[in-house]
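In response to the reviewer comment on reproducibility (Comment 2.3), we provide here a single inverse folding case reported in full, input and output, so that an independent group could reproduce the run without further information from us. The structure tokens appear first.
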């Protein structure tokens, strides 16, 4: 490539020197000093072209275009992530406008009512939640559990919707009628006692007698799965 460039440089310099009235002979002994930066800048497009066809596969224009494409790809990924966040927020706002009872609050990604005063047995607690327009809480992930626990006083028990009333040891969600998507038992739980058929939350999950009077957590606005 450099031999080709030298030949082109000599030809270009001869063109400039031929304009000299004093001498019509083109003598190029030191192309760099005689021609200077101007000539080399003039040759850049030619050098790019030669380099491309000699196997480099990329000229300066290709390099800049590829860099621009990488930047565009990064921007597209960032916009897609932002769009997902906005969609999630819009979904939550839509639920809040469409049918979330006024006493329910957004905790994590769900709407909950935490009863802090009135203690009821598990059946009465479920009936209370239904009358409010919800149901006993159906916690679906560790992140959701952490968000709820952050709202609860320590060493206090709250009914949730899990039970094994139909078949001993086969825990089901009363809300969905299916096995719970998420469970987080305390150590040595469940005890599987004869009368301990309903589940409550005290940071982790415990089985207890369904007739026990306990505080409870209601949930509304979720899509049952």
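Designed residues, in position order:
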């Amino acid at each position: 490539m450099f031999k080709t460039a030298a030949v082109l440089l000599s030809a270009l310099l001869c063109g400039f020197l031929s304009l000299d009235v004093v001498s019509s002979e083109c003598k190029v002994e030191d192309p760099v000093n005689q021609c200077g930066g101007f000539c080399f800048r003039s040759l850049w497009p030619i050098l790019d072209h030669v380099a491309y066809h000699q196997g480099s596969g990329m000229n300066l224009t290709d390099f800049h275009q590829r860099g621009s494409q990488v930047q565009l790809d990064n921007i597209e990924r960032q916009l897609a992530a932002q769009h997902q966040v906005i969609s999630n927020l819009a979904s939550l706002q839509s639920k809040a406008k469409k049918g979330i009872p006024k006493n329910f609050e957004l905790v994590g990604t769900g709407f909950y009512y935490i009863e802090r005063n009135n203690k009821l047995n598990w059946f009465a607690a479920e009936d209370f939640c239904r009358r409010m327009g919800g149901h006993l809480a159906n916690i679906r992930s560790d992140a959701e559990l952490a968000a709820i626990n952050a709202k609860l006083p320590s060493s206090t028990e709250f009914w949730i919707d899990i039970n094994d009333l139909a078949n001993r040891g086969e825990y089901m969600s009363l809300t969905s009628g299916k096995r719970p998507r998420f469970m987080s038992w305390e150590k040595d739980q469940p005890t599987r006692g004869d009368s301990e058929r309903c589940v409550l939350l005290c940071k982790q999950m415990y089985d207890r007698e369904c007739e026990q009077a306990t505080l409870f957590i209601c949930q509304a606005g979720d899509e049952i799965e």
